[in-house]
């Protein structure tokens, strides 16, 4: 009955992409926010961004929606909209203050994730992006389990170049394989920094073991692209603006656009193969 409820609610979602990382602080929420903005730049596409990072919900701030609240209608919870074609849902909208701590055990977190999937009225959606917390525990198992009632196109895994980050990302890749979650590919974030004045490139996080590229070769996973550091990304996120719109010529924006295009191509191909099987 539960699976049927979820299927009924998510029937109108065409593609679902999970954004994962074994490590905190690698820019996963930033990537999720910019992926949503990038997909929604096509006004013919309806995009939904679901934040299940229950203890550290940063999506409301990054999307310029701090202080917004969720409204309930006859058809369920209504998402909060950034644009007409970009809706957002986060536990951040349910807190009385952004400084409130969410001190919950696993079952309560799982209950909220289920509620987000079952009770939010997304309507017709081309892309549902799910921003997850770091790690491979409760929230990840729950979202994969609940979405298995419908379908997931796959996961995008975000890392930074240094070994301490890659170590945790390898665990995340193994998690995906164990729960049979397809991997769309890996994004190497904070990959080098080009000085705007002297144009010299510095490796802020040196890829001591070959970075994401070498890891992807070893584990037979696609590298979707490398995003260089750009201080403007942090500023745009703090202001709740889209960095892609604010700095359209930045090397980081060009890299994002290429990665987003590859994700779209993967999803379309995945959808086509599923229809063929059916």
Automatic annotation (TrEMBL):
Gene3D superfamilies noted in UniProt: P-loop containing nucleotide triphosphate hydrolases
GO cellular component: cytosol; nucleus
Name of a matching Pfam family: ParA
Keyword annotations: 4Fe-4S, ATP-binding, Cytoplasm, Iron, Iron-sulfur, Metal-binding, Nucleotide-binding
InterPro entries with a match to the protein in the record: AAA+_ATPase, Mrp-like_CS, Mrp/NBP35_ATP-bd, P-loop_NTPase, YlxH/NBP35
Domain of life, source organism: Eukaryota
Residue ranges of every copy of the AAA+ ATPase domain listed in the record: 14-185
Protein localization: Cytoplasm; Nucleus
Molecular functions per Gene Ontology: 4 iron, 4 sulfur cluster binding; ATP binding; ATP-dependent FeS chaperone activity; metal ion binding
A Gene Ontology BP annotation from the UniProt entry: iron-sulfur cluster assembly
HAMAP family reported in the protein's UniProt record: Mrp_NBP35
Task of the protein: Component of the cytosolic iron-sulfur (Fe/S) protein assembly (CIA) machinery. Required for maturation of extramitochondrial Fe-S proteins. The NUBP1-NUBP2 heterotetramer forms a Fe-S scaffold complex, mediating the de novo assembly of an Fe-S cluster and its transfer to target apoproteins. Implicated in the regulation of centrosome duplication. Negatively regulates cilium formation and structure.
Name the record gives this protein: NUBP1 factor
Organism: Platysteira castanea
């Amino acid at each position: 009955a539960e699976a049927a409820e979820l299927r009924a609610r998510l029937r109108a979602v065409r593609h679902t992409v999970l954004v994962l990382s074994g490590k905190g602080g690698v820019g996963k929420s930033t990537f999720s926010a910019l992926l949503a903005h990038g997909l929604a730049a096509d006004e013919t596409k309806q995009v939904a961004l679901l934040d299940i990072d229950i203890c550290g919900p940063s999506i409301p701030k990054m999307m310029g929606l701090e202080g917004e609240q969720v409204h309930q209608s006859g058809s369920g919870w209504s998402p909060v909209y950034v644009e007409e074609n970009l809706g957002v849902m986060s536990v951040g909208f349910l807190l009385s203050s952004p400084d409130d701590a969410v001190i919950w055990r696993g079952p309560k977190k799982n209950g909220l994730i289920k509620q987000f999937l079952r009770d939010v009225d997304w309507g017709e959606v081309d892309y549902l992006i799910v921003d997850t917390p770091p790690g491979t525990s409760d929230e990840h198992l729950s979202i994969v389990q609940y979405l298995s009632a419908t379908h997931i196109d796959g996961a995008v895994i975000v890392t930074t170049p240094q070994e301490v980050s890659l170590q945790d990302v390898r665990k995340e890749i193994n998690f995906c394989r164990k729960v049979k979650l397809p991997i769309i590919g890996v994004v190497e974030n904070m990959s080098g920094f080009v000085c705007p004045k002297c144009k010299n490139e510095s490796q802020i996080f040196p890829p001591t073991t070959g970075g994401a590229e070498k890891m992807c070769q070893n584990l037979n996973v696609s590298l979707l692209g490398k995003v260089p550091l750009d201080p403007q990304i942090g500023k745009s996120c703090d202001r709740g603006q889209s960095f892609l719109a604010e700095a359209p010529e930045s090397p980081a924006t060009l890299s994002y656009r290429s990665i987003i295009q590859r994700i779209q191509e993967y999803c379309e191909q995945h959808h086509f193969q599923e229809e063929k099987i059916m």
